[in-house]
Design brief:
The protein has 228 residues and is of the alpha+beta class. 36% of the residues lie in helices and 19% in strands. The mean pLDDT is 92.
């Protein structure tokens, strides 16, 4: 398979994941009084109904309220979604063998700070993506530093130890391992535009996790960085 075909399949997988989020909102599944695990299971069932998706390449995440402060690797207790919560979803559905990884933030209620956070995660994502495209030799460490600068400029902290990772055919870890150079983080000093260990172009997910620790909530946005 050539690189153009690989890119097209990764974009198709992402497009379907975004359709899933659109349908989630259309059906008004995000409501107060529902547990995070319950909503996660409903999204799993919706993914199967819409696209026949039966597997996710990483754990499904639905987090609300103070649970939105936690990074991916944490496993906070299941929580009931409250009427004024900020909430984010992070899903990695497998479409055939192709990995999608999409995260979005939703706000229940009218809290203006939470609505600003929801908007800012997208703004910081777009600015980080522009920076990546403007710097052909950028490393993961350099992009992470820029994301942290952008977050601070918007009045937020970064809530995770990295700002993204490699993505590709499942399981990408089998080819590339779980080494630091496959993350957008401090110490990832290789150019991001490079071939992987199998000689194929690296493709990247950009993750923006912004938090307000004093107020006790965070927001999240992720999707493909170098494609689309």
């Amino acid at each position: 398979m050539d690189e153009e075909q690989r890119a097209a399949l990764l974009l198709e997988a992402q497009d379907k994941a975004e359709e899933l989020f659109d349908e989630l909102e259309r059906r008004q599944l995000i409501v107060a009084g529902k547990r995070e695990r319950e909503l996660s299971d409903e999204i799993r069932d919706l993914a199967h109904e819409m696209f026949g998706i039966e597997r996710f390449w990483h754990k499904r995440i639905v987090r609300a309220g103070p649970n939105t402060l936690h990074p991916y690797r944490a496993n906070p207790p299941d929580r009931v979604i409250a009427a004024d919560d900020v909430l984010f979803c992070d899903f990695g559905p497998l479409l055939e063998q192709w990995e999608a990884d999409v995260g979005r933030t939703f706000v229940l209620g009218d809290d203006p700070v939470k609505h600003r956070l929801r908007d800012d995660v997208s703004v910081v994502f777009d600015a980080g993506r522009r920076y990546f495209h403007e710097h052909p030799d950028i490393t993961g460490a350099q992009l992470f530093a820029e994301v942290r600068r952008l977050a601070a400029g918007a009045g937020w902290e970064i809530g995770a130890p990295h700002a993204g990772h490699l993505v590709g055919e499942f399981p990408h870890e089998r080819i590339n391992g779980d080494d630091i150079e496959y993350y957008i983080t401090t110490g990832s000093d290789e150019p991001m535009r490079r071939p992987d260990r199998a000689g194929r172009l690296c493709h990247w997910i950009l993750e923006i996790h912004l938090v307000d620790r004093a107020r006790g909530f965070g927001g999240f946005h992720e999707q493909l960085l170098d494609l689309g």
